[in-house]
Amino acid sequence: MNTELLAALTVFVLAILCGFAVISKVPATLHTPLMSGANSIHGIVLVGSMIIAASATDLLSQILSLIAVAFATMNVVGGYVVTDRMLQMFKKRPTAPAPAAAAAPSTPSTPSEKAGA
Amino acid sequence: MDGIEVLVRIAWLLGAASFVIGLMRMNSPATARNGNLLSAGGMALAIGGTAVLLAFNGAVAPTGWLIIAVGIAVGGGAGLYTAKTVKMTAMPQLVSLFNAVGGGAAALIAIDDYLRLSGEVASISLQISIPTVLDILIGSITFTGSLIASGKLMGVISGKPIMLPAGRLITIGIVLVAAAGSLYLWTGAISVPVMFLILAAALVFGVTMVLPIGGADMPVVISLLNSFTGTAVAMAGFVIGNDVLIIAGALVGASGAILTKLMADAMNRSVLNIMLGGFGGGEGTVGTVAGAGGSVRAIGADDVAIQLAYASSVIIVPGYGLAVAQAQHAVRELAELLEERGVDVKYAIHPVAGRMPGHMNVLLAEANVPYPQLKEMDDINPDFDRCDVALVVGANDVTNPAARRPGSPVSGMPILDVDHAKSIVVIKRSMGRGYAGIDNELYGNPKTGMLFADAKAGLAELVNAVKAL
Questions:
Q1: With a cut of 0.95, is the ipTM above it?
Q2: Would you tell me which residues 435-464 of chain B have a C-beta closer than 8 angstroms to some C-beta of chain A?
Q3: Which DSSP string do the residues of B254-305 spell out, in sequence order?
């Protein structure tokens, strides 16, 4: 076992512990956006897909890496956009019945800006 | 390591850090969106950095760039289109689809890497062969398993547990084949056919694993497969020696595992019990129903409107039936009407209302229901004692008092104490059963009135009746 592998294993184990620590604090109401958000993070596989695509020389390898890049991009773009769509609905509004006064001045969220890669 | 590579590695590190901070900011609804955007920014940085690295290394053939450009255009377009057009009720199947493609991409990296190595070297060290085999196994199981899970929720495949003849034997056979193949490759031997054999076994295993599981349990399965995808991505990181894949994959692997356990806990099932399948959809779940089956009291919309309008407090219990009927806006309209009349209206949200924990919150938020009105189960349960009318719309098993006694398929599941309310109104199309496949004792309760209607039509009737008062 070389030092490079040991370093990679260290990173792996610490990242797992970090994931446990971060996630266990999230309230149940946000679990669906969270699942979707975590789902988009594993779209990082696009980085790996690009690296294998860059060095693909034979036809089979080119086809495999093309599918990998397309799959991974779908994961990234779709994941972040759909999570953002969900989260932009979580706005606090005054419970007052008058819907005209519902534009809360304090909420800083702007409805435009889209997530994407 | 030249300057560009150092910069790109720092970009990857920043990306990984933004994933962690982004997840932390999902702690509260106020910062969650911002957290997701931060995570997306980190992702863009990591991907952009990779492109820069490839460009400066100068080793990329024009076909390589073409593959990357076409792949990103096609995949990005497909992802953007589905994410923009999906209905919020169909969220779980979309997450499952993204799991499938993520897991598939991770498996393809290992397959491609193995094919290249097999032509170049005489033996492959354990350091590479272990993550390669694990990546192919986990990634492929996730790919087919997620597609089946998605198909079940879309209704393309029956949501009922599908028991294959000799299914257990097939599964055991597949596991033995995969295990033998893996051990063979770990001895250092290079064999492309054996690699493909493992791949095929894993693809079939994904199908046979998910088919016997009922539709009601799919969210737990999807969450588990989300965790699998993360693990497969981390393995891909070991295969090609890339830290950012390892970090992000491990993060998702851990988070998916926690979330899976939380979901299973909310349904009072163990993850193992769910994965063994066969629950729901009727077979073997006759249940012991006392009190129901006998007299059920039907009630008209006008009577319900009077009850609601002159109540001082009303608790609405929304379930998946409300989401299916797209009645979120109708329920919000009714609630606003009642509030104008001075009625205190709250929503009781069961942890597994909808299809996933938090799914119902998303659906109601989409209909502009004010967030503070949504109460979680433990907070709202004491309020049912003081509540005049509990209005149950499309929720079933989560209100069944049978869960408090042993001997029923829902026994031990935490439920909403709807039966403690002074009066109960259930809007439901028929006396049909919920996912657990048993009758709901609540419907036989003398305090309960049944308004037989589709959730949307029933609520619209109530809105008109309240307006007419």
A1: no
A2: none
A3: HHHHHHHHHHHHHTT--HHHHHH---SSSTT-----SSTTS---B--HHHHH
- How far is residue B248 CA from its own chain's centroid? 20
Beta strands (DSSP E) in A1-117 are none
B316 CA: distance to closest CA in chain A (Å): 16
Q: Summarize the confidence of residues B48-75 as an average pLDDT.
A: 90
**Mean pLDDT of the region B118-125:** 84
The residue type of B372 is: P
Substitution target from B13, B36, B66, B224 for chain A, most A beta carbons within 10 A: B36
Token digits of residue B460: 């619209």
pLDDT attached to residue B52: 93
Answer whether A49 sits within 8 Å of B79, measured CB to CB: no
Task: Measure in Å the smallest separation between the Cα of B290 and chain A Cα atoms.
Answer: 33
Q: Which residues partner with B313 through β-bridges?
A: B344
A-contacting residues in B 388-417 (Cβ below 8 Å): none
Q: What is the pLDDT of residue A108?
A: 41
The β-bridge partners of B375 are: B348
Q: What is the pLDDT of residue B193?
A: 93
pTM of the model: 0.80
